[in-house]
Structures are given as structure tokens and as C-alpha cells.
Design goal:
CATH topology of the largest domain: Aminopeptidase
Order of helices and strands: EHHEEEHEHEEHEHEHEEEHEHEEHE
Radius of gyration: 21 Å
Helix content: 25-40%
Number of domains: 2
Structural class: alpha+beta
Number of strands: 16
Strand content: 25-35%
Distance between the termini: 38 Å
Shape: elongated
Largest sheet: 9 strands, mixed
CATH class of the largest domain: Alpha Beta
Number of helices: 10
CATH architecture of the largest domain: 3-Layer(aba) Sandwich
CATH superfamily of the largest domain: Gcn5-related N-acetyltransferase (GNAT)
């Protein structure tokens, strides 16, 4: 097949039907139009940022990212979380290495949406696509994804203040349905303690967790004397509590165990048996890892051997620096 028969271009209105069909063919999972619209059209930070490859009227390849706000060195920027990397099996044998459809679609994405626009983007992959990405797509590994797990026997051993200590300190835990101005103020107060991270402001939290079309996440907020001390978002699935995201003040070590205890009690009152807790957190910041260990969490490999990679569009950062400074969670991926 000649190059003239392969047309690579940005996504256009109306392409979504072909994209959803290819998604089902590539991943053996059906994605709803509402999910696609939420992810790529309703993202408040921009988009859609999608490159597509066509052979005649057939969608042969797809590479996409959705933008998220990011805080680095006290400054705000936009980066992308890249996902939905896919090629129709019927066209995978076209070209080799940098000339195949996936690589050509990927470099179209780099040239069209990334160069001169963002410092880097990130994604999660494994297996063949990870090896291919390192060889031909400039993927640089940053983090071998690890889980933090609390087993069943640890659920009732959380380190908690006594009743009177809790009353004196003025803690209050609530399950909320939306993120308001409190989220903006709290993020600004704790962001310097986390290094580089997605800016978990109200606009981002509303879009990412409160307006998801397919999943109803639980969102818990803990206050101390009416001031926010932390929050967590996640869901109960397959007998376990999955923590997708969390942000707490390092000055208040009681906040997370108290919020977690309220969440566990809520689930048990709903009649759920809880076999344990699963979460993803990077190895930093160190104070956060110490907090998890104090609560009884243990580190374990992610079952699918996922690796977080970055692709840089500036020489101002390095994979080594990112590895030491980024704070990422399960919710920072499109796998949660």
C-alpha cells in the first residue's frame, strides 16, 4: 500500500462513530458515546486532541490525549494524559517501525498538538506497546506502577485518635457530591508539599469525578474545625474499596485514617463486605508514603506490570527529575 492511500489528519466532528467501533475492536470493550463526549469534548481544559489514520473510508489508526491542568515549580501549565492508542488489526502489517500506521499517527499527534504547546505528556502501558514506544515513539519510563494495599486484617487496625481527642480537635467527615471553592483553596495550601502534580482544583475534580458519565465515585471530605484537612475519591468494586485519588495536609496525620474509617463504616452500613483496599500512589512525597505505612498499607507490584512513561517536548525536564518529583494516583490515569 502506498503512502498516498493512507491519510492522517486530526479528528473531525462525525469521526466518533468510527472511533468507538475501532475501540471495541481493539480493546474488546464497548465505550458509550456519552463517555467519549465527556472525555474528549467536555474536558474543560481543551480538546479534542486526536490524530486519526484513514485508509479509504476505514479508520486504521488512532492516537489521543486529553488535557489536564498541571502544577510544576509553583507554576501552572497544561499537559496531556494519552490513551486509546489503537490500530485496526487489518492494517497492522503496513510499514515497519517508524513507518507503520501507529508510529505515523503518533508523530502526527506530536507535531499537531504537542510541539511548542506542552512540556510533556504521560501515559500508562505495558508489553508490546511499551517496547515499541521505547524503540520508535520516544517513550521514556518514569514509574513502574505500584499498588498500596491494605488487607482485610488491617481494616480494623487503623491508627485513630480516641473519641475525646476527635471531639476536641473538631473533625467532621462528609460524603459530598461536588467540589466547590473549598477545593481550590485547599489545593493551593497543600500543593507545595506534593511536588509536581495534576492541579486538583474544583474545575478538574468536577469534571474528572463528579461528572463521569459511567461511574459514580464516592467523594469524601474531612474538615477540622470547618477547615478542609483532606479528601479522597474512589469506589467499591469486586469486594474491595479502590482509592482513586487523595489529597491531604501533611500537618494533619489523623485526617486520612479518620476519613477512611468513615468510608468503611458507610460501606458496611450499606451491607458490603470489604476484603481490603487497593490504591496507586507514586513513591513520593516521602511524608505521604510514611503515612500510608503507618496506616498499615503495604506496597505490591501492579498486576499488569504497567509502566508510566513521558514524552518530552522541552529539554528543561528529565525523566530522572520527573521520577523523583511527580505525585500520581490511579485517578490520574484513564484506567480508573
Amino acid at each position: 500500500m502506498s503512502d498516498s492511500e493512507i491519510h492522517i489528519r486530526p479528528c473531525r466532528p462525525g469521526d466518533e462513530q468510527a472511533i468507538l467501533a475501532l475501540f471495541q475492536k481493539a480493546f474488546h470493550h464497548e465505550r458509550s458515546p456519552n463517555h467519549w463526549n465527556w472525555k474528549f469534548l467536555a474536558d474543560p481544559f481543551g480538546g479534542p486532541f486526536i490524530s486519526t489514520a484513514w485508509v479509504d473510508d476505514n479508520l486504521a489508526g488512532h492516537y489521543a490525549g486529553y488535557p489536564v491542568p498541571f502544577r510544576m515549580e509553583g507554576k501552572d501549565t497544561i499537559i496531556y494524559q494519552v490513551g486509546d492508542t489503537m490500530t485496526d488489526p487489518a492494517f497492522r502489517d503496513i510499514g515497519r517501525g517508524r513507518t507503520n500506521i501507529l508510529a505515523r499517527t503518533t508523530y502526527h499527534f506530536y507535531d499537531t498538538f504537542c510541539k511548542g504547546k506542552i512540556p510533556f505528556f504521560y501515559g500508562f502501558n505495558t508489553g508490546k506497546i511499551h517496547r515499541f514506544g521505547k524503540l520508535f515513539l520516544r517513550y521514556e519510563p518514569v514509574w513502574e506502577v505500584g499498588e498500596w494495599i491494605l488487607d482485610r486484617q488491617g481494616l480494623d487496625k487503623l491508627p485513630l485518635p480516641g473519641y475525646w481527642q476527635r471531639m476536641i480537635r473538631g473533625y467532621n467527615v462528609d460524603k459530598v457530591k461536588s467540589a466547590g471553592e473549598w477545593a481550590d483553596a485547599f489545593f493551593e495550601s497543600v500543593a507545595p508539599h506534593y511536588g509536581w502534580l495534576v492541579a486538583r482544583n474544583a474545575e478538574y475534580l468536577q469534571w474528572r469525578y463528579c461528572k463521569h458519565p459511567d461511574i459514580q465515585y464516592d467523594f469524601w471530605v474531612i474538615r477540622r474545625r470547618r477547615r478542609i484537612a483532606g479528601w479522597m475519591a474512589g469506589l467499591y468494586r469486586n469486594g474491595r474499596l479502590h482509592i482513586g485519588d487523595a489529597l491531604f495536609s501533611p500537618q494533619d496525620p489523623w485526617a486520612m485514617p479518620l476519613a477512611l474509617r468513615a468510608w468503611l463504616d458507610y460501606l458496611r452500613n450499606q451491607g458490603h463486605e470489604i476484603a481490603g483496599i487497593r490504591s496507586w500512589f507514586t513513591p513520593q512525597p516521602l511524608w505521604w508514603i510514611r503515612q500510608l505505612k503507618t496506616m498499615g498499607f503495604r506496597h505490591a507490584p501492579e498486576p499488569n506490570n504497567l509502566i508510566m512513561v513521558i514524552i518530552r517536548f522541552t529539554s528543561d525536564i528529565s525523566p530522572q527529575e520527573a521520577r523523583k518529583r511527580v505525585y500520581f494516583t490511579w485517578g490520574d490515569s484513564d484506567l480508573f
